[in-house]
Amino acid sequence: MDSLMSGGPAVSKNFSGSRFRFGADSNGCGCHSDLIHVVYQTNDLLFIIATGGGLCLDVSSGIMLIDMKVILIRDVASLGKEGDLVEVSDGHARNFLFPQNLAVQATADALQKRTQKEEALKRQTHKEMSGAGEVAKDLDGREVLLQVKVSDGGVLYAAVTGKDIAKALSKEGVKVKSEMIKLEDPIKEPGEYDVRVELSHGFEAEIKIIVEEKT
């Protein structure tokens, strides 16, 4: 818990969006151990929300900061992942997270942008899942013919790899990344091979690769 002020002139920091605990003054005024939330700040006053409703507090009376809500803009060990809304001490936020560009204060504007980003991400994820599902249906059970040069000994001059299969599928109008094609070993001989394709979002398909000698 960082002590921000103990009398004297108003501080220049912006505490909007922060939460504080403040105690009674020497005359017994104040709300001991009551949590308040700063919603607006001027040079001399903090407009806050507490249990009993809206209040206006003179900053020169002394306030003890509890924590601040921030939005992580990068993954931070022990705190969370990018986009998470977390509470940290004021000092940790201002002395480390903000200077290192790891987080921003959870103002109303920042929270709105976070919500918009989350909604856009959900739409994108839904689109990607739908696309991956359609590709899985299109691929499952498909036969892919590869005609290659074979030596007199019955061995391929160049082994068939995932890149070769991805290229063949691309010619058939199906786009997949070569790393999605799970070959235990490169194909070195003519024949038929069952190959698993691991798509995004957990979708899978099994295709049959038919390797023939090119005449």
UniProtKB/TrEMBL annotation:
Ribosomal protein L9 domain: residues covered: 68-112
A UniProt-annotated Pfam family: Ribosomal_L9_C
A cellular-component GO term for this protein: ribosome
Keywords: Ribonucleoprotein, Ribosomal protein, RNA-binding, rRNA-binding
A single GO BP: translation
Domain named Large ribosomal subunit protein bL9 C-terminal: residues: 132-212
GO molecular function, a single term: structural constituent of ribosome
Coiled-coil zones: none
Family classification: Belongs to the bacterial ribosomal protein bL9 family.
Full protein name: Large ribosomal subunit protein bL9
